[in-house]
Amino acid sequence: MALIITDDCINCDVCQPECPNGAIAPGDTIYVIDPDRCTECVGHYDQPQCMKVCPVECIMKDPDRPEDRAALERKYLRLTAT
């Protein structure tokens, strides 16, 4: 699954620089995650780094975008292909 940021986001700016795929960006009111770039850090880390650093725990799995580990690995390979 890709991750999403809930309305509890306080725009603290700590998640964006932690994303190795550049999937997190400022939105109109809160930060947003591009589901086409989010691999939950598969290929980079053992756990999603944005979730690890979020002080208000407002980042969660997006129930509308189910992806298993194999799908996240394929996305990672697509994103890192040269």
Automatic annotation (TrEMBL):
* Domain 4Fe-4S ferredoxin-type stretches: 1-29, 31-64
What InterPro entries does UniProt report for this protein, alphabetically? Answer: 4Fe4S_Fe-S-bd (IPR017896), 4Fe4S_Fe_S_CS (IPR017900), PSI_iron-sulfur_center (IPR050157), YfhL-like (IPR047927)
- Give the source's domain of life in one word: Bacteria
Keyword list, A-Z:
4Fe-4S, Iron, Iron-sulfur, Metal-binding
Presence of keyword 4Fe-4S: yes
| One Pfam short name | Fer4
Check the record and name the PANTHER family matching this protein: PHOTOSYSTEM I IRON-SULFUR CENTER, PHOTOSYSTEM I IRON-SULFUR CENTER-RELATED
Write the protein's name.
4Fe-4S cluster-containing protein YfhL
